[in-house]
Amino acid sequence: MTRPRKVYLVDFACYKPPPEIMCPKEMFMDRSKKAKFFSEENLSFQKRILERSGLGEKTYFPEALLREPPNPCMGEARKEAEMVMFGAIDDLLAKTGVKAKDIGILVVNCSLFNPTPSLSAMIVNHYKLWGNIPSYNLGGMGCSAGLISIDLAKQLLQRVHPNSYALVVTMENLTLNWYTGNNRSMLVSNCIFRIGGAAILLSNRSSDRRRSKYQLLHTVRTHNGADDRSYSCAFQQEDAAQKTGVALSKHLMAIAGDALKTNITTLGPLVLPFSQLLLFFTALVARKVLKMNIIKPYVPDFKRAFEHFCVHAGGAAVLEEIEKRLELSEWHMEPSRMTLYRFGNTSSSSLWYELAYCEAKGRIRKGDRTWQIAFGSGFKCNSAVWRALKTIHPAELNKPWMDEIHEFPVDVPKLATINA
Length: 420
Fold this sequence. Notes:
By secondary structure, the chain is an alpha/beta fold. Helix content is 39%, strand content 17%.
């Protein structure tokens, strides 16, 4: 009776923006030039970043920023938030048949846009949710906040609210966060972040097990914010001209690697088979106790623990680093690379576009385990592990991939090839 309740993922929906706000690279550069914010050197810099970003020609950008002249304002930012949130939630409720009044917990995360009333209040108002609903609005937690939201919803479902549905909405908002200065460490975000969002319906009702897609097995959160270098590697601030942006450190990849190492040290014993744990422990003892430094640290084979990997599509460099560190194949990285190519970096929602890709390709079989890995400012690395409760048939799906999944995968040159 004291055992935590099982948490099921009934279904999820990823928002697919309208074609009117599709933003090819040439259009992005054209609008950036006409805005007259950037020097010629930094326009060329942004063009080079775009060419190496791993993004394709069909990503989406806020309507307010595509106008001539651009119109970034609070009203337009609210419109973007409503479009993404309500679009994803409407799709999710239609897929599951759950009514808005049935939702017992609401968790929303958006890192850079935190209006008053909050985004969670906007959802409560729009869908007329119950006045006593526990609602949470997470801000400032970066691209890994989606899994923090899942972890929070899990704890509430397991310990506090029996027989409940939890709605998790994960997104980012770009309208007020387009950097208009000339600090290059802040210009990278302009080039890779795009519109996107997802809505996820979780349940702790045993009666929902049969119709749910996945069961949540583990969530592991790592926060290296006590280290000053990690804390400041993705930092929102003003530049010398008092223009606000998010500065990305040149040490970001090394810091992400350290956070990943810490995270998998906790996750490994929960998911790896005994043979992999034994090899890892033997190598560790040889290096640390017996001082046999000629022995390389053993990297566990996580392919023995998971069938599918959803790595946050933060950029081409992030994906290549994780592929190398975890020794994954191109097949394992395909959902992440294709998500980056088709939708860009949609921040905390990218993991759900990746899982949707796996489903649309018919890869998810009953019993399969999926590892979602996300990185965020602070610096954080968070993981979630799901087990498929049934085989997912592509014919059952709709947005965001199904009308074009036959076009993927496409060939996306790696950074090493581009630099050569």
